[in-house]
Design goal:
Pfam families: SBP_bac_5
Helix content: 25-40%
Number of strands: 19
Signal peptide: 1-32
Distance between the termini: 26 Å
Family: Belongs to the bacterial solute-binding protein 5 family.
CATH class of the domain at 289-508: Alpha Beta
Domain Solute-binding protein family: 93-436
InterPro entries: Peptide/Ni-bd, SBP_5, SBP_5_dom
CATH superfamily of the domain at 289-508: Dipeptide-binding Protein, Domain 3
CATH architecture of the domain at 289-508: Roll
Radius of gyration: 23 Å
CATH topology of the domain at 289-508: Dipeptide-binding Protein, domain 3
Largest sheet: 11 strands, mixed
Shape: globular
Strand content: 15-25%
Number of helices: 16
């Protein structure tokens, strides 16, 4: 999702359906740091209006191409790709390209499309195209296949597809609302492109997607998008959309100040203080929406393959200081690995230095003076990976370096250009990632499966816990709300007992805007641009 998206680092209900949604709601609602002098010094006053309708966004993550198997997850965030279901702030998705999603029984779901949905190439999205899309994603997307347990996608009406699954899938709505699973695209047009051996750049002309905006050009520096003619949900709110790829955070803010961008994404918290009193750029923050800066631990690399050492590490972190002091109060204290406002959440994260010291002693790591602890002649070292696209990851990493030194850790903070690629390897200790156990759609069940199940391709932490795997598998089949709560609490207890994962802070959403876009609402699930986005 993944910014890191849920998955922001990377590569979806009526009568009976409403009853299911209600049953699911409880679990679903559920770079160096920027220098203070990095901004343009002058205050030139409010940025001049760019004219009616257009929007320019500066972001740190580059969109490489339009290949639906590699990069379609960016599309829902910027309005050129749609999903079957739409993520919502309460964690219960609503229909998007679908008119309805109806649960017939535990292994049967009826998907009904809206009328008049067309791909950019003019082809209508009908039931046959939808069934083909779902089967294609099931074959080509391992994460989706593991989540949906598809048996068959049968066309049962002009706009209706009936899915049958090999086991109960109570979280179907969230699965269909996840940007990593089933982006809506024309499978036939994509197959023709592949069979012809055309370069990926030619997908700009294939008209694959159905969103309110169509991408007209894409370079390493920017993307240019225009409103989709005849868009099914009315006239889009922008006359033009430009996405600029600007890796450095200060440069993104300078673009806003200079009138070269309207909104800058992925802001470090230091910008709030830097922009106080200015009228050429405004720091806009929203409430936490499930996102965190997660501390992901390589469970397969010594000494962090020892659960006692992992527990000691997590007990040594000063979570209050990270949220209130290090990030200037622009995050809430993380007391839970799931960091959500839901009744299934257990507060099992806490700072306890005495416990941390005792656990390290028990694990054989001996303290000697003010230097690092040692065991069998080896120092207790910890390398923390951060990445420039999320500047506060480095801020947190540097703070942890100071916090853990007194406990006997010798800490190194290393910034890497691609945090996903770095974690795919084995040569790392921990990483600070803009990620959450909650999925892209704020589902704890999907998030657990994606991040911590031993068989998941996104289990970059190499977690291998038979106890947790069993709970996750049971959660994926359980419709009963009370039992799901019990299972979610059991999962959290296992995560704490085995020291598998931690949320360093519960981060708030934040952007920098010009005066025209100062009231920009912070979106759920990084949906920065929708058909309704307008000044």
């Amino acid at each position: 999702m993944v910014a890191v998206r849920r998955f922001r680092q990377r590569p979806f209900p009526r009568a009976r359906a409403l009853v299911v949604a209600a049953a699911l709601a409880f679990s679903l609602a559920a770079c160096a740091a920027e220098a203070d002098d990095g901004l343009v010094a002058r205050d030139t006053g409010p940025t001049a209006a760019a004219g009616p309708g257009p929007l320019t966004i500066a972001t740190s993550f580059r969109i490489d191409n339009l290949d639906p198997l590699e990069n379609a997850f960016w599309g829902p965030e910027f309005g050129y790709v749609e999903l079957l279901m739409r993520p919502e702030p309460n964690g219960v998705p609503s229909p998007w390209v679908l008119q309805s999603l109806t649960n017939v029984d535990e292994t049967t779901w009826k998907l009904t499309l809206r009328e008049g949905v067309k791909f950019e190439n003019g082809k209508t999205l009908d039931a046959e195209s939808l069934a083909e899309l779902i089967e294609f994603c099931d074959e080509e997307n391992a994460g989706f296949a593991a989540a949906v347990n598809l048996d068959d996608a049968e066309v049962t009406g002009p706009l209706e597809v009936t899915l049958t699954t090999t086991q109960p899938v109570p979280g179907m709505a969230n699965i269909l609302a996840d940007e990593a699973n089933v982006p809506v695209f024309d499978v036939d047009a994509y197959a023709q492109h592949q069979e012809a051996g055309k370069p990926v750049e030619d997908l700009l002309d294939a008209g694959l997607y159905t969103g309110p905006y169509a991408m007209k050009s894409l370079t390493s520096e920017r993307a240019e998008l225009e409103p989709m003619p005849g868009y099914w949900d009315g006239t889009p709110g922008l006359s033009h959309l430009t996405i600029k790829f600007v890796p450095e955070a200060t440069a993104r803010v300078q673009a806003v100040q200079a009138g070269e961008a309207d909104i800058a994404l992925y802001m470090p918290t230091t910008m709030q203080r830097n922009l106080q009193g200015r009228s050429d750029a405004f720091f806009v923050a929203g409430p936490p929406n499930g996102t965190t800066f997660a501390l992901q631990i390589n469970n397969a690399r010594a000494p962090y393959d020892d659960p006692t050492v992992r527990q000691a590490l997590l007990a040594a972190i000063d979570y209050r200081a990270l949220a209130e002091d290090v990030l200037n109060g622009l995050a809430e204290v993380a007391t839970s690995s799931m960091t959500a406002d839901a009744d299934y959440v257990l507060d099992l994260q806490a700072t306890d230095l005495d416990k941390a010291k005792r656990l390290l002693d028990e694990a054989g790591w001996t303290a000697a003076g003010s230097g690092p602890r040692t065991k069998d002649g080896q120092k207790l070292t910890l390398e923390i990976l951060t990445y420039p696209q999320q500047p506060d990851s480095n801020t947190i990493g540097v703070a942890l370096q100071a916090q853990l030194k007194d406990l006997g850790f010798e800490v190194k903070v290393s910034q890497v250009p691609d945090i996903t690629e770095a974690r795919k390897g084995s040569d790392w200790d921990v990483a600070i990632v803009g990620d959450s156990i909650l999925s892209f759609t704020l589902s704890p069940v999907d998030g657990l499966r994606q991040s911590l199940h031993s068989d998941s391709p996104e289990n970059y932490s190499k977690v291998d816990s038979p106890a947790l795997d069993a709970v996750i598998s049971e959660l994926g089949r359980e419709f009963d709300a009370t039992k799901r709560t019990e299972l979610l609490r059991r999962a959290q207890q296992i995560i704490a007992d085995e020291g598998l994962w931690a949320a360093t802070v519960r981060r708030k959403g934040m952007v920098v805007t010009n005066a025209k876009w100062r009231n920009y609402p912070l979106p759920v699930a990084n949906l920065w641009v929708t058909a309704r986005t307008a000044p």
